[in-house]
Amino acid sequence: MDQRMAAGFAPAAPPAVRMENHGPTMARVAMHSGSDLFARTGSMVAYEGFIQYESNPTALRQAVAGRLSGESVPLMKCQGDGVLYLADYGADVVCLPLANEGLSVNASNVLAFDAHLEWGVQRVKGVAKFAGQGLFNLGISGAGWVAVTSRGIPVVIDCAQAGETYVDPDALVAWSTGLDMRAKRSFKASSLIGRGSGEAFQLAFSGRGFVIVQPSEDSTDRLTAQPQN
């Protein structure tokens, strides 16, 4: 290869933290012995060093249990020493450090998270009476790293500064579980806010924490993730 062609694509510097972006659509994870990772099945695009992958029985049992609620997450367990690169069909990636806090994530937006974190399928309360159906997310909590995807460049809203924030449920990626949340119907019943929601209602967030919103309102994303062996 002509060195001039590769001049702008020099090898990346060693990771500065456990998990970080390598460009807008890829996560780079520093892997070490004993620091296992759960990642979406099929999300590995490259790795350096010695890294192994396996379907984790405990993770898959939780994923299968999620099918009862309409949400499931196909996960693989990654372990070893090296650098792991993850992506999801060109979706934008956001890497988030959790400091003994909780995050509620749309299951189809989960890319990876530290295996020592607590996690499980959770029902979002107070939504069914407005949407006509329940909303189920993946709850992740503890101290560690999480990577989520977004269909397009997301906006991360700090609710402590923005005040009460209103979001179309079908564009919602994740939010801090410490936020206060309520469902709000639009004033005009004939209006339609959110192409995929099927009703004129939003979720209102307030308090200390953040909300991640993607520029997509495809409600089918919530039902596509299925467990794989």
From TrEMBL:
Recorded superkingdom: Bacteria
UniProt-listed InterPro entries: AIM24 (IPR002838), AIM24_sf (IPR036983), Trp_RNA-bd_attenuator-like_dom (IPR016031)
UniProt name for this protein: AIM24 family protein
Membrane spanning residue stretches: none
